[in-house]
Amino acid sequence: MSKQHFPYFYNLIRRFRKDREGAIIPLFGIMIIIIVVMAGAAVDVSRVVNAREKLSYALDAAALAAATDLSTQEMTNDEIQEVITDSFNANLADADFLDEAIENLSFTVDADNGLITVSSAATMDNLFIDFGGYGQTAFGPETFTFGTNSQVTYSRFDVEMAMVVDVTGSMGWALDDLKDAAESVVNILIPADGEESKVKISLVPYSVGVNMDSYASAATGGISTRCVTERDGDEKYTDASYTVEPAGDGSGTRRSQDCSDSVLEPLTDNRDTLLTAIENLETEGYTAAQTGIGVGWYTLSPNWKDLWPTESEPAAYSNSEVLKFALIMTDGAFNTYYDKHTLTLSECNNFRRYYGPCYAGTNDYWIEKAGSGYSGQPSQRALQLCSAMKSAGITIYTVYFGTATSSSQARVMEECADDGKYYVATSSDDLIAAFSNIAKKIQQVFLSQ
After folding, report:
1. Is 124 helix (H, G, I), strand (E, B) or coil?
2. Phi/psi at 109 (nearest 5 deg)?
3. Count of CB atoms situated within 10 Å of the CB of 388
4. What is the sign of the dihedral through the CA atoms of 297, 299, 302 and 305?
5. Which residues pair with 399 in a beta bridge?
6. DSSP helix/strand/coil, 305
7. Which end of the chain, C or N, has fewer beta carbons within 10 A?
8. What's the rounded Cα separation, in Å, for the pair 299 and 215?
């Protein structure tokens, strides 16, 4: 069969073939548009996903920054807003949506559970879906909106810490290092920006006694106006025996001649106050470390709160939102203690020569005595105080500064400390590092709870 025989059918087939070829062109064009829009949508969605991830990272960083500050200091809403805004500026500096994200930035603080939640949202133009204006109408909006939030826990706890430091004569060569070590504790635990801190520190320097300065009279019932040593406790102060400086008139006590000029500072969150007290440390006298430990405890004890200014009052032991710590340091053997003693005639005559009137056999006097070694009274009294402090809920860190690591003083420091909280410093660098590490450990404890 040829086209000559069937011209009509041939022409019909030819026209059909031409019609089919022409129909492919518009279909192909439509498919190209769909493919481009789909590919563009994938690019747009990918851009938004990346932007959301960047926003999420910035929110995590901002929430963490705010939580860190909330863990260490009291903050107003404006101060929290400033912290998270500064963090956003640092982490989204090159983002096109920075201004919008900051405008939509918000936070909530759940003080009961120690949570801060930071949220934000932004928009991004759809570059490909808006295909000449047609894609926007047919396939989607002009912009994508994206947002997320981040929630971080912060510490609800306040911290009270007693820093009990050895300022006896043997520490003279390392006094500057001791000051550096003590300053590192303040720098780590108390913010430098002047905000109200959640950490309060007391400084208790000791030698044969503790220079309590203006607090001495109240602590000793008027017997002393400067230094304190140890005696049986007044029933008002029930934690343990407390310390007094014997009066110079011989009216019932023995005066210590070697109390250091280094002055006690009760609990405070004032950096300048603490740093000034540290800078003014001086060394003198023998080692009645149990006296320093006892007075360090009293700066943390609610039973002694009436002695201190209102802002320095220790919290109740039952206050579950306050963590109490002590850092105790010595470099030498505990070698001095005080006992009540009824003087004989000869003792009274010798006493009177230096300290005023004395009545043999009628008055009890506090006599400075020597005692050393692990079994000696100073060491044993120190261990009793440490045990009682731990029973009251105070966590104790200790530092032995020296090379005689098997000595009685090293043994006492090790037993005074809670498990894993005893440090040995055999050099000046070690001493500074030990204090810094203890401060960081304390910081980790209250930040993680």
Report:
1. strand
2. -120, 125
3. 15
4. positive
5. 329, 423
6. helix
7. N
8. 11
Question: Is the model's pLDDT at 251 over the cut of 50?
Answer: no
Structure tokens belonging to residue 180: 């550096």
Contacts of 52 (CB under 8 A, 6+ apart): 146, 147, 148
**Which residue type is seen at 189?**
L
pLDDT (tens digit per residue) in 30-48: 566 555 555 555 666 677 7
Length of the chain: 449
Query: Among residues 291, 24, 335, 71, which one has the least CA distance to residue 199?
Result: 71
- Please report, as a single letter, which amino acid is at residue 315: A
Mean residue pLDDT of the chain comes to 80
Indicate left, alpha or beta for 420 from its phi (over 0: left) and psi (-120 to 50: alpha).
left
- Cα separation, 338 vs 232, in Å, equals 10
Q: How far apart are CA 385 and CA 289, in angstroms?
A: 11
Look up tokens 């109240």; give the residue.
218
Q: List, in order, residues 6 or more apart from 294 with CB less than 8 Å away.
A: 230, 240, 241, 242, 243, 385
DSSP state of 73: B
Nearest to 57 by CA among 127, 146, 150: 150
Tokens describing residue 372: 């050393």
What pLDDT digit, counting tens, does each position of 331-356 carry?
Answer: 989 998 887 777 777 777 766 555 55
The percent of residues above 90 in pLDDT, for the chain, comes to: 41
Which residues 6+ apart lie within 8 Å of 178 measured at CB?
A: 165, 166, 167, 171, 281, 329, 431
Nearest to 151 by CA among 64, 52, 86: 64
- Asked if residue 182 has pLDDT above 60, the reply is yes
What is d(CA 349, CA 345) in angstroms, rounded to the nearest whole number? 6
**Distance set, CA 79 to CA 70, 117, 272 (Å):** 10, 15, 22
pLDDT in tens, 395-434: 999 999 999 999 999 999 999 999 999 999 999 999 999 9
* pLDDT of the residue at 235: 42
Least confident of 57-71, 174-188, 266-280: 57-71
159-176 burial, b at 16+ Cβ within 10 Å, e below that, comes to bbbbbbbbbbebbeebee
pLDDT of residue 320: 87
Of 265, 281, 259, the residue nearest 208 (C-alpha)? 259
Separation CA 207–CA 426 (nearest Å):
21
| Dist. CA 205–CA 293, nearest whole Å | 10
